[in-house]
Amino acid sequence: MSNYHIKHLEEYYQVYRKSVRNPESFWEEMAEEHFVWRRRWDNVLTWDFEKPEIKWFEGAKLNITENCLDRHLPTRGEKTAILFEPNDPKEAAQHITYRQLHEKVCRMANVFLEQGIKKGDRVCIYLPMIPELAVSLLACARIGAIHSVVFAGFSSNALATRINDSDCKMVITSDGSYRGGKTIDLKSIVDKALEDCPGVTSVLVVNRINGKVTMKEGRDHWLQPLMDDAYADCVAEVMDAEDPLFILYTSGSTGKPKGMVHTIAGYMVYTAYTFKNVFQYREGDIFWCTADIGWITGHSYIVYGPLANGATTVMFEGVPSHPDYGRFWQVVEKHKITQFYTAPTAIRALAKENLDYVEKYDLSSLKVLGSVGEPINEEAWHWYNNNVGKNMSPIVDTWWQTETGGIMITPIPYVTPTTPTYATLPFIGIQPALMDGEGKEIKGNQVSGRLCIKYPWPSVARTIWGDHQRFKDTYFSAFKDMYFTGDGALRDAVGYYRITGRVDDVIIVSGHNLGTAPIEDSINEHPAVAESAIVGFPHDVKGNALYGFVILKETGEGRDRDNLRREINQQITEHIGPIAKLDKIQFVPGLPKTRSGKIMRRILRKIASNDTSNLGDTSTLLNPEVVQQIMDEVL
Ligand code: WT7
Question: What is the pTM of this model?
């Protein structure tokens, strides 16, 4: 019992040591004491990073929704599980109790069954941040279907790619969504996507905006009437610990998105345990994570982690700038939020606005502030600490990834002394390593290298849907017997970690993970474009923005440059989504390449960042003259 909630630094070190000396017995104890199982496991852990194959709690049977819902009914049935705050502050908030949530999940699960969805089938969820989004994840889990949530800001093309990659049979969507002052017509995006998705046999539509939509006979159904007619109870499917719970796509260094597969039991145990400690959650707290459920942060810390702990979790439909820049703080005051978890890009955007927007509201309910998604710069850290936390709420800078399922390196608030820009110490059970270019571990402190993890933790992704080889190549091949994160990090004199950023071709823009390859592929499809290269450059709100270097075909040379820029961004918006648009596009005569034909992005990054005093070694370039030509015309 005692190790579930860590309360002081000595205890952290003691539990940490225990968790790495004997991980199996540590996680077994957690699993045993804090969750309900239909059958006990035969093995706590079997693993092989070579294959790679990782299994936690093999042989155990359970249903995650019994852990997130049913078991709370006797003691917390009337407690708010989901607190929904709509986009429009004038629309009433909804308090959905555990009992009501249980009923909604059961009804929706029964609708899914009627639609012919069975255990193991994939269901694509493309919804705005409304309660039905959380309900649909849990309804899938109730019957053992595998959910694949696609963030509702993705384009129809991106949606179709994801639906087809995992062969989804059904799509859950809405007529539209409210985002700040805009409404977005989601159903027509789905309709367009489904022109290329022959495997989808049914579409369930939530009525959110009373929008005009076309419903395809036999395929499309309004969800609510079906739920009203469905039974209010649904027997939970008994699942294996290692059955997939969900697929969630993340960008990679090559074109195709990677469908990360998370399995049930390990994911449940780790997200619940991290939620409890990283946010020092206590009964009665009101937890608000501002992420969208379309990202892993929302899966783990809006839905599964909080609900497994019987917590009240806030779902916010809106944006931080609507109706004005005080919206976040108004919601904190209104619902007496105790833990607030957001992204540095939001903090930087709000820090640019008048302080009145923050000072107007009573933020005294706050106990813990969280940050996630990208490195938090010193200035943003202090602004958050001074103006939101009033120097009283510790900031937890949480480092983790879609692939890790849960928070990996983080302070524990009121336990770990924090340092701005440092994610500080590994969480319980996490064994980080810094590696050098030769594949050797760099021991000791005040060193930096590539960040790897040496030993499995319960919520590590198990594979990439349909492409286990890519899973191995991406995460388990760079360093022997290690999980490679793709990030660089340093370890300071006291052993604190600071994440320095990606060391691969992924760029983090406003906290969104973007691979360069899919964006370049999209640009190159433009008829006037011969070749392109994308790099990131520092941006004061987004963290990084995208800079594109584009070579035109001869036929494109005579075209108006600004029109071309617009067309290129339009094309990216259609292929990927508006988040991947380029801030700057420079037309260039060539790209710096090595003799083996590889674009030397290091040089382009320096040019884009206006940091050309020392370009480093350019001796391996095939075409050094092009560097000067690019620099002469830099934007
Ligand atoms: C990448 C993973 C997991 C939550 C959302 C992002 C970067 C994430 C931090 C942090 C510095 C961070 C890393 C990581 N990142 N959190 N606290 N400090 N960098 O998930 O989209 O899978 O992106 O986000 O580069 O590898 P994701």
Answer: 0.93
**Residue pLDDT, tens place only, 348-365:** 999 999 999 999 999 999
Q: Is 401 in the pocket of ligand 1 (CB under 6 A)?
A: yes
CB 526 within 8 A of CB 568: yes
Q: What one-character-per-residue DSSP string does 184-229 give?
A: E-HHHHHHHHHTT-TT--EEEEE-SS-------TTTEEEHHHHHHH
- Atom in ligand 1 nearest the alpha carbon of residue 400: 3
- Tokens representing 230 are 């469905």
pLDDT tops 80 at residue 604: yes
* CA of residue 372 to ligand 1 center, whole Å: 6
Max Cα-Cα span within the chain: 74
Give the mutation target among 513, 514, 542, 579 for probing the ligand 1 site: most ligand atoms within 8 A of CB: 513
DSSP H helices in 78-172: 98-114, 131-143, 156-165
Q: Is residue 579 lining ligand 1, measured as CB closer than 6 Å?
A: no
To test the ligand 1 pocket, which listed residue (260, 397, 401) has its Cβ within 8 A of the most ligand atoms?
A: 401
- C-beta atoms surrounding 507 within 10 Å: 25
CATH of 9-319+398-489, one of 3.20.20.150, 3.20.140.10, 3.40.50.12780, 3.10.20.90: 3.40.50.12780
Query: For the chain, first and last CA: distance in Å?
Result: 60
Asked whether this chain's domains 9-319+398-489 and 510-632 adopt the same fold, the reply is: no
**Residue nearest atom 6 of ligand 1, based on CA coordinates:** 373
Burial class for 613, CB neighbours closer than 10 Å (0-12, 13-18, 19+): exposed
Its CATH architecture, for the domain 510-632, is 2-Layer Sandwich (3.30)
Distance CA(290)–CA(65), nearest Å, equals 23
Task: Return the sign of the alpha-carbon dihedral for residues 358, 363, 364, 368.
Answer: negative
pLDDT over 70 at 255, yes or no:
no
pLDDT in tens, 453-470: 999 999 999 999 999 999
Which of 297, 374, 377, 407 for mutating ligand 1's site (highest number of atoms within 8 Å of CB)? Answer: 374
Distance CA(200)–CA(249), nearest Å, equals: 18
Domain edges within the chain: 9-319+398-489, 510-632
